[in-house]
Amino acid sequence: MESKSKDINWRGVDLNLLVAFSALMETRSVTKAAAKLSIGQSAMSHNLSRLRLLLNDPLFERQGHQMIATQRAIELSSTIENILNLVMTQVLRPDDFDSQHYQGTFRIGLTDYAELLFAPALFDAISRLAPKCQLSFCNVDRHNYINSFNDKNLDVVIGSMTDLPKELESQYLYTEDHVCLFDQSATGLTVPVSLARYIITPQALVSPDGKLASPIDNQLQEQGFKRHIALGSSNFLTIRHLLKDRNLLCVVSRLMAKIDIFNDNLTQCKPPVDIPDFHINMLWLRRNSTHQRMEWLCQIVSETVSERVASLREKSEAR
Hints:
Blueprint: H1 2-7, H2 15-27, H3 30-36, H4 41-55, E1 60-63, E2 66-69, H5 71-92, E3 105-110, H6 112-129, E4 134-139, H7 145-151, E5 156-159, E6 168-176, E7 178-182, H8 184-187, H9 195-200, E8 203-206, H10 215-222, E9 229-233, H11 236-243, E10 249-253, E11 267-269, E12 278-285, H12 292-318
Parallel strand pairs: 3-4, 3-5, 8-9, 8-10
Antiparallel strand pairs: 1-2, 5-12, 6-12, 7-10, 7-11
Family: Belongs to the LysR transcriptional regulatory family.
GO molecular function: DNA binding; DNA-binding transcription factor activity
Pfam family, one: LysR_substrate
C-alpha cells in the first residue's frame, strides 16, 4: 500500500479537476462545461488534458459535436460524484450538529469548586439532549489546565482562571463572593462575626497547593493581626464534613455553602475582612471555536451553569 501511494503524482491531484470532470460528464461538451464553470474554453481544455494525464485515459473522445465518455470515465463517474458530494456536505458545508444521535465523548475540565457545583446539572442537561454521548469530567486547577487541554483532549474548562494564553477563548459566566461558614453551637459565634472573634476562632483552609496561608493573612498582617489556621485541606468536602460539631470556621464561596449534599444547617455570614470576589469563566481552544459541536456544547454549558447559579442564589435569598 505504501509503495503504491508513493507512485501517485499527488502534486497533480487537484479538486478542480474533479469538478471539471463532473461538468464534462454532464454536458459532454468542452464549451458547455466551460460555460457551466464560468471559465474559458482554453482553461477547460487544459483541465481535460491534465485529467487524461493524471488518470492515464482519454476519458472523452469527440464524435461530431459531442464528447463521448470512455469506459474508464463511466466507471469513475459515480465515485467522483460521491467525492464531490462528500466535500460539499462534510467539509465545506457540514450538517448541523445532531446532539440526539451524537455518540462521541464530551470532555469537560472542572476545578473542585466547579465540579461540586455543576457536575450533576451538566450531566442531566447534556445526557438529556445528547442521550447517546459519553461525558467525562476531568479535575483541573489553575496550574495544569492549559496542558490538560491537549493532554486530556478537553473540550471546555470551567473555573476562575485568569491571564489566559492567546490560544484560548473565554466566556464570562458569573461572579462569586465569600462567606464565613461555621457551626454556631460548636463555635459560640453569633452573626455578624466580629474581627476579634474571627481572629481567635480556629479556622479551616481550603488549600489546593497545601499552603496554610492565603492573601487574607497578608491583609491581616498589614493591620497587625494574625488568625489561627488549625487545618488545611485541598478537598472542600473534607473540610465541610469537619465543620459540623467542631470549633472551626471556614471562609468559602457563597455558592459552595449552598450545595445540596449536606443538611447540617451550618451558619453563614459576611466575613469581617475584605475578600475580593472572583469571576468564573468557561474556556476552550480558539482553534475549535467555529466547530458546530463546540458551539453546541458551549451553549449548553453556559445555559446550565446560569440556571444552576440562579437556583442556588434563589435558595440563599429564601433562607
